[in-house]
Amino acid sequence: MKRLLFFLFSLTSYAQQAELWLTKADQSVLFQKQTEKLAFGPMTGTLPSIYVDDTKRFQSMDGFGYTLTGGSATLINGLKPSEKAALLKELFATDANNIGVSYLRISVGASDLSDHVFTYNDLSAGQTDPKLSRFSLAEEQKDLIPVLKQILAINPNLKILGSPWTPPSWMKTNNNSKGGSLKPEFYDAYARYLVKYVQEMKKQGIQIDALTVQNEPLNPDNNPSLLMPQDEQADFIKKSLGPAFKTAKLSTKIIIYDHNADRPDYPISILNDPDARKYIDGSAFHLYGGGIDALRDVHEAHPDKNLYFTEQWLGAPANFGGDLQWHVKNLLIGAPRNWSKTVLEWNLAADPNQGPHTDGGCTACLGAVTIGQTITRNPAYYIIAHAAKFVRPGSVRIASNVTMSLPNVAFKTPDGHTVMIILNESDKPMTFNIRAKNRQITPTLSGKTVATFIW
């Protein structure tokens, strides 16, 4: 009996220890597991305290990851087979030695980080093809589809979000890949185009979990791009896209907006339309304008609809410390605290010159990894790793307060663990309590440090 009691006590004590992973802004520590575990003990002292309450639960998480742009796929697919296999395992495998990215965004056709502009139905000037008889995924068969198949073999549960940058030019008012609007007479044809995309990708063994209607619909200056104000997006969804998805019996979610947090009125106005909202799962955001708390405004206006954070770039050359802190505070912590189910960085990979990109596309977008003579891991790699490895899909955000210079977010995982991400954004070390279930640990975090605690 004494041995049994000692064994049970040992199990209890072990369960009350927290594992800790750190990244420091000065790069002296980069996503490194700490050897010393912190043991929970009685609540004492008067230090600043973060209280974690797993009885108060909020949204479930779909995952953390990147955009696998066409250029990213080209670079990855160009690696030697052994190098490609090792990189993809490191990024997507869910075992103890890898970071387990759980969510990817891909472009429907080219994005501005493809090496050239294309759609799946490109025609000569003056031609149209409303029946889509010339629809083809041939361009994606070169790099994107092979890379996705290899990723899904590593992590079959990975979720994929598709985002179009432009319809085929013949559907647009300016007959150009850049700017212009979708012609109303081609609403139905474009809806069928997107249905066909989901169906044809499924034939390749690639399930598109969700589709945003248009990347950055208020930015017609990118190449490719499309201007789609909210009234046009609402009309397209309720008149064409929603009914087409329903007729085709697609389970793929329809997500609106996919642009900056400075215009929460855009998704709210569409969700106010009962004929459009019935087809819509939720809204997606970037943060090149506005504040991350605008997501909460959309949630409060339509609490039955989901929120997703789908894009934020880091510019080259990297400012490692500043980028790390801003992205952790606003995205990794801020987006989930404001109801987002995903956090995605833009983009997965680039070459040492921040290519490839289209003529007029982003020339300074730094990948999570740089693929050149060697592979370099950049700030976005570590930012996402701090969450993706531990906050697995199906984890639920739980309550935690913010105290001092310690922004944080906490989750309960499907296997019952608690994960807490904390940033010490001050210059000085901070000693504080983390309190949960009437027990506490008292860590000290050095200044400008990101920490993930798991217990």
UniProtKB/TrEMBL annotation:
Q: Name a Pfam family for this protein.
A: Glyco_hydro_30
Show where the Glycosyl hydrolase family 30 TIM-barrel domain sits. 62-391
The record, for SUPFAM superfamilies, names: (Trans)glycosidases (SSF51445)
Molecular function terms from GO: glucosylceramidase activity
Give the record's keywords alphabetically: Glycosidase, Hydrolase, Signal
Tell me a GO biological process for this protein.
glucosylceramide catabolic process
Which InterPro entries would you find in this protein's record? GH, GH30_C, Glyco_hydro_30, Glyco_hydro_30_TIM-barrel, Glyco_hydro_b
Outline the extent of the Glycosyl hydrolase family 30 beta sandwich domain: 394-453
Q: Which residues form the signal peptide?
A: 1-17
Q: Which GO terms describe its cellular component?
A: membrane
Similarity annotation: Belongs to the glycosyl hydrolase 30 family.
Q: What PANTHER family does the record point to?
A: GLUCOSYLCERAMIDASE (PTHR11069), LYSOSOMAL ACID GLUCOSYLCERAMIDASE (PTHR11069:SF23)
Q: What is this protein called?
A: Glucosylceramidase
Organism of provenance: Runella rosea
